Amino acid sequence: MRSSNPVFSRRGFSRDTGYAGFNAQQPQAGSPAAGAGPYATNPYATNPYAQDTQLGDPTQAPARSGAMTIDDVVSRTAITLGTVFVTAALSWFLLPVDPANINTSYGIGVGAALVAFVFAMIQAFKSKASPALILLYAAFEGVFLGVISSAVSTYVTPGAVPQAVLGTMAVFAGVLIAYKMRWIRVNRRFVGFVMAAAMGFMLLMVVNLLFALIGGGDGLGFRSGGLGILFGVIGIILGACFLALDFKQVEDGLTYGAPRQEAWLAAFGLTMTLVWIYLEFLRLISILQGDD
């Protein structure tokens, strides 16, 4: 089962190819994957029909030296998100968006976003997780977030940034609790629905951008007014669904003994999803408070 996150879909957290270059231990008889057809040959398979395992439950993962643990995932995610936060704060203060510097700041912010995208794509297509690439992505992504957050706070909606941060944290906590309580079941139907919704959402955003570039203004109106609010809510819901898929992929890695290096991949994917949710919250809050 593939995650909506392109990082997980290209790497060891994928049922199709397994982890490149890692001679993984095959599931033993009686394990969740034993006798499960194609799932039995891949140690990182996501079998929606296998018995449930709790995220981070060490009793469910094979005891093997060098295997990824939940502490590895938490620590790498904290480092990656910390890098985003530090560079965002620095760019906020060092790249002011006042009238005298706004063009320079916007230029640096857009350039940083493009560089971050390049690093993300390189990592997504690499056979192994690269901590250096992941942290470089986080650093440049933070520069972009710092500039765009400063601009929104200065010219659009003062106070939007802390509200967006709190909203992102609330979504993360809520999805994690719902996942651990098994209120969210990540099965084939769930994945199919999320992937179809995500493709439709992105297609509409691309069409809206093209209309905006050709005709000016807001294109089809998906970024302002009532439609903007609706699509902002949909974007946040999709981000929450991405988180559920990411949690499932991490759980599979823990259950089947993924190598410790894969914790960086988990951190990378979770960071990308949280950035998505934060930006959607920032846009939604700007629309809501701008209409008041």
**What value does the Rg take, in angstroms?**
20 Å
Structural class: mainly alpha
C-alpha termini separation: 43 Å
Helical coverage, percent range: 55-70%
Q: What would the principal axes of the Cα set say about the shape?
A: globular
Strand content: under 5%
Q: What's the rounded overall pLDDT mean?
A: 78
| Low-confidence blocks of residues | 1-54, 58-63
N-to-C SSE series? HHHHHHHH
| SS elements, strand count | 0
Number of helices: 8
Gist of the model:
The protein is mainly α and 292 residues long.
Structure commentary:
The chain is mostly helical. The protein is 64% helix and 0% strand. The chain has helices at residues 6-10, 70-94, 102-124, 131-156, 160-180, 188-215, 225-255, 262-290. Helix 5 (160-180) packs across helix 7. Mean pLDDT is 78; it is low at 1-54 and 58-63.
Set down the secondary structure blueprint.
Blueprint: H1 6-10, H2 70-94, H3 102-124, H4 131-156, H5 160-180, H6 188-215, H7 225-255, H8 262-290
Helix pairs in contact: 2-4, 2-8, 3-4, 4-8, 5-7, 5-8, 6-7, 7-8
